[in-house]
Design a protein that fits this description.
By secondary structure, the chain is an alpha/beta fold. Among the domains are: 176 residues, Rossmann fold (3-Layer(aba) Sandwich); 123 residues, 2-Layer Sandwich (GMP Synthetase, Chain A, domain 3), CATH 3.30.300.30. The chain is 31% helix and 24% strand. The protein contains 18 helices and 30 strands. The strands form 9 sheets. It has a 7-stranded mixed beta sheet, with helices on both faces. The longest helix has 17 residues. It binds 5'-O-[(S)-ethoxy(hydroxy)phosphoryl]adenosine.
Amino acid sequence: MSYPFQLRSAADYEQAYQSSVQNPELFWSQIAEHFHWHKKWDAVLTWNFEEPKIEWFKGGQLNITENCLDRHLPAKANDTALIFEPNDPKSATQKLSYQALFDRVNQLAQVLKNNGVKKGDRVAIYMGMIPELAIATLACARIGAIHSVIFGGFSAQSIADRLQDAQVSFVITCDGAYRGTKEIPLKSVIDDALVQCPFVEKVLVYMHTHTPISMLKDRDLWWEDEVAKVVALGNPICKAEVMDAEDPLFILYTSGSTGKPKGVVHTVGGYMVYTTYSFVNVFQYQEGDVHFCTADIGWITGHSYIVYGPLCAGATILLFEGIPTYPDAGRFWDIVDKHQVAILYTAPTAIRSLMGFGLAPLEGKSLSSLKVLGSVGEPINEEAWHWYHEHIGKGRCPIVDTWWQTETGGILISNMAGITPAKPAYATLPLPGVQPILLDENGTVLEGNDISGNLCMRFPWPGMLRTTYGDHVRCRTNYFATYPNLYFTGDGCYRDTQGNYRITGRVDDVLNVSGHRIGTAEIENAINSHTGVVESAVVGYPHDIKGQGIYAFVIIESVHGDADLSKLDIAQTVTRLIGAIAKPDKIQFVQGLPKTRSGKIMRRILRKIAEGAVDALGDTSTLLDPSIVEQIVKGAEL
Ligand code: WTA
């Protein structure tokens, strides 16, 4: 399969970028022509950022799974679509050809239909990283149901919040999942969540770990049994639902600076075009390459660069169930050699944690199949960049530092492997169609280079979010109200003298812990619901491996038992309400919090204390009670 829209030189990139800005509609319609549509669109783009209203390829009719699967048949029927590497290296690897993946998606799509799932219904998927997770998302897309994949690390309460928000009627899960030495009882977590969600009608359960589970009559169904019924009927094909380009494809919940996570909504047509275009260009995918993205499908990276982008491009994807350090810190490198991986796409946290094991885990690993390395999810520091480049890429593989967000659907700023230059710790240049702009806090546009500001986008691209589920006002307030007529990313950014972009991190109250987004307000709410807690304030601090660690300052009425036990209790409450990814690394009991006279917590001061920069606290004279700061500094957990 060749990609007519694959850019092959810096000059190609320049030219594409210019056309994409001069005539975005022509530019994107020419790319969209290369996909399978039942009917072409009426208008390429209709938009305004006030409401916001963003429509790409409206009136166009398609089904994304026909582009991921049917379109590759029969030519690629026997080519490998998916390689599955299980958690336990001694368990058998699985390979699914495009034909096999097509068959399994069709069977499951028919199962969903037989159980009453219709176009527009919301289906939640809570599974480990096994092929059935990818199959479940595609089966939903095939019948036009809107999937909401929930990362396997979220707690029952987090799941219940998401199920309620999206009014989910059908859940797909498995008995359990393996992660290193741990076995995660997914079905049992779902059962706990469903106590609060009587509107969920059916739960489909895939057996994977053979963990004992409880199956409720009239609600819970076995995946295998349901598929067997479909197979017995002997009709292997489930006709793909014809969707409008602007029909929703999925909801994915992500944390913001306020309140509960919001359901970012992506639609079918624009998302398909953008993820495929960015995939083949950023990674310079070539037919036959094995693409190994280590993200979980529960996050946007897995949606866009394990499932949709690569499969639309007819690529071979590698899905890994386990963790980088099990059974030892050489696991990624074993997988690269075993499956002759060409593209490795991972997060700086993983690189930093593997760096900590030194070079011994690399001994005897060839890594000669690698062609391109990718980084995503958080800023990559120079040390990690160089280690990745030298020891993994052996100095010959370009690294793409890809900046993007759940809301952007696909990569917006990145170099293109071997095509445009890399610069350590820089995402570098915008993709064609992407128009970044920097502003200061007062909304003044910062022109020219060698300047830092808040990163916004001034023009829509096909992969951007359309709304937040059930609350369009929230979408507007979060992304389109800070700066009129611009999409605000929430990230700070530096533009160097050559126009390369370097993302410096969030400027709002969102933390990025091991590449996972978590709102400080969410963690505070969880801490505040612990008995005896009066108030809390959570900030991030630099963490050698995780990028950011979570530091909680907590006012507590009285301590039960010893203080350390109380801290563990609080951490346990956060784990129960959100999940282990939100558990504070440090908890400090304080008498008070630094507040202004109007009662606002001065987080700037708390951040400095958490960083250990107690000599740089700045002006504390506007505080209601400046002596509080001294007390906090004395008790700081450094
Ligand atoms: C951060 C993940 C620096 C950023 C795809 C963004 C990055 C947030 C990079 C989105 C990068 C992502 N360099 N920072 N290459 N990629 N980020 O929604 O702060 O989970 O706003 O999407 O991660 O996280 P999300």
